Amino acid sequence: MKIVPDTSVVVDGRISELVESGEYAGATVIVPEAVVGEVEAQANSGREIGWDALSELQRLAELADDGEIELRYVGERATEPDIERAAAGAIDALIRDIAQAEGATFVTSDIVQAEVAEAKQIDVEYLEPRERERGALAVEEFFDDETMSVHLREGVVPMAKRGSVGDVHYEPVGDAELTVAELKEFASEIMDVAKRDDDAFIELRERGMTIAQVRDMRIAIAEPPFADGYEITAVRPVVKTTMDDYSFAGELEERLLERDRGVLIAGAPGAGKSTFGQAVAEFLAGHDQVVKTMEKPRDLQVDERITQYTELGGSMENTADSLLMVRPDYTIYDEVRKTDDFEVFADMRLAGVGMIGVVHATRPIDALQRLVGRVELGMIPQIVDTVVYIEAGDIETVYDVKTEVKVPEGLMEEDLARPVIQVADFETGKPAYEIYTFNRQVVTVPLDEESGGTQESGVDKLAKNEIEREIQAATRGPVEVEIQGGNRAIVYVSESDISHVIGKGGGRISDIENRLGVSIDVRTLDEYPGNASSGTTESRGGSSSGAGGSAREGDIATPEITSRHIIVPVDNAEPGQTVEVQADGEYLFTATVGRGGEIKVSRGSAIAEELERAIDREHMITVSVQ
């Protein structure tokens, strides 16, 4: 009897056991050199299964010395590319070819191998795979009941984030610095369990980065060249909550069950957004709702009633297309970050699916503003009607979002009526923000600021900025604006610019007044109350070159993304001036300010792609005058 074992049965030690039991007594065992090359590579990388396989080969050699079997090694050793492509079946094909050429029985515990061999009319014996006993992973020794994540890196003592939601501390959990060999051993164990255990799987496998889900842990393994050293990060949920653990629970439950909703769960990193998302998912699943999730990677800890989906073919758009065939009542989208994510979220919501998205935001309104420019303004309330802001593990704010055609708060003229998105406090019903188009731009105006004293209201600030923008398009010198009320303002310009601002027969200033719905009085800068002396008239817009001139820090800008452009408003420079745009202090590009007081970058260009990536990553965009 001639047999050819593959790597799976060599690792399990099945061949020597069957020889000793008498079933394979006197057999000729033909071991492909490809098997030897694969297990040697596994052993060299520190994987336990590689060492197990080498021990089995040594036992077979001893049995051959005792005359129990004949042992032969045949074929060519697997090359490094073959080993790298082992998961795609490169080595399996070499082993099958040897079994066929030798006319031997092919022995495997890999069901795919067995089916392929049978299809190729090779005599095959399939052995049920043996369950490998596994206890806790080595990385689990660094966890305790309050540990949220463990961070292991070569040359650094083990670190962990511990505490409760909203009160987390990053602290050492070991004394000795970790070595590369130790990290490789940890990684080998994780990979082995991820491949073999029923409650584990490999989420992502790319050169330099592997993400595995093992029981309730999400584990990321980074190595060169992707990272500058070996690193393992293991994360697991500390607490599992229900809706009853949160403020406004009863009202939110009624709202979610009343009809399919569009909800954004917002908060800072570590605030407890995903934990709340899990509670919402399980509440809905327990109330006759079909619930699915979209995650990359999949790390929400939900019960068996909820199916968790990830990218299909590398795209969440493909996942959404598949989900529309499944027709869930609600889908939890964790996390919505990039423009593509918002577009998929919007498409599914408009298709009638209840959507709950998890979004990073430092203020409740910021979550809603991230939709501006990515979808049509008038569609926002149909896509998102509820914003839930989480802080320190509890609900701090809930906003109700709806549309009404009205004159925006603070403006007076009836002909200024337009669709206005009203963002109101869910508990009190008091309006907190209005979002609408003003002078061809989308603006978000806070309504809960005090208007008394010297503090400007949101509408006053908006009107001042827009008036400055319009007037500067008609001047070459500095501009100052003083708001006198909701529909009246005084503009101060240099004497030489007054005629340009007013225009022939007052036509230009009338056009500006009609567009903005504000009555404007034009005066010279000498009359400006804040102008203590003539030496200060270059305080805005002009270049500072005297004793008082100093380099200005970049002003923060909020870009608007349209279908064709990314528009960066510039408030600290005049039209025609050169400015530098940065993201989190890193240079992006230099541009010239247009007549509208803004920079337009055409989408699809290299600069636009870099700027859009910075916006998606929530980098601070700043503009500074050169």
From TrEMBL:
Entry-linked SUPFAM superfamilies: P-loop containing nucleoside triphosphate hydrolases, PIN domain-like, Prokaryotic type KH domain (KH-domain type II)
A GO term for molecular function: RNA binding
Keyword annotations from UniProtKB, A to Z: RNA-binding
Matching PROSITE patterns: KH_TYPE_1
Top-rank lineage group of the source organism: Archaea
Bias kind Low complexity: ranges: 533-542
Sequence ranges assigned to domain PIN in this UniProt record: 1-115
Gene3D superfamilies for the chain: 5'-nuclease (3.40.50.1010), P-loop containing nucleotide triphosphate hydrolases (3.40.50.300)
Region (Disordered): 526-561
NCBIfam families xref list: PRK13764.1
Family the UniProt entry places it in: In the N-terminal section; belongs to the PINc/VapC protein family.
PANTHER family the record matches: AAA FAMILY ATPASE (PTHR11603), MEMBRANE PROTEIN (PTHR11603:SF147)
Protein's name in the database: ATPase
Source species taxonomy: Archaea, Methanobacteriati, Methanobacteriota, Stenosarchaea group, Halobacteria
